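User: For my dataset I need records formatted as: sequence, then structure tokens, nothing else. Please produce one.
Assistant:
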Amino acid sequence: MQSQQVIRTIKWIHSLFGDTVKEVLFSGHSIEHVPPEVLLTATHEFAAVQPQLTKDPNAKSILDAFGLAHLCDAGYPTRLATILLANFPAREMTPELELPRRGRLPREFGADLPSNANFRLMVEAAEAFERLTMPGELTHAVPPPEIISLEIVYTTTEPTIVAVAKATHLLGALYRTVAQVYQHPEPGNLSVIKVESGS
């Protein structure tokens, strides 16, 4: 998977969840005093967008790489709601069932909330990857019109460097021809700002 695709997919995953889900499930803040209706709302909102995750192969691969494969498990929202709301009215009277700080639940409940740190790590990693690997021109939501994306797709015969160079040369010639036809100033030479290889 190309780095741009990884970054775009992580941003997309992050954008799927509303503020309630992010605060309750992924922020790392204590949920000890969060009202049960808010916990239920968070799990309901999570369940509503989960099918989008499971249908996207890139999202599934990335979540698995960050130890978050359970987020694609169809039964996870129900288990999570049960865990979060278990013995809620009795928390003050039953100290051993209290929700520990930082939103972590006792392991005997089988909760996956400790992995919320992995979700934050994934989002922060995408930001770091973007700063380190993306030229400034490619960080815009819509790349500037002067940016040309040349994608080479092949099945059996790999293109040679000579073929790639020739394709780039012909693309430049095409732009010069269009400029002449429409009497625009002749464009300068094409400059390569990023090269990626991946599936």
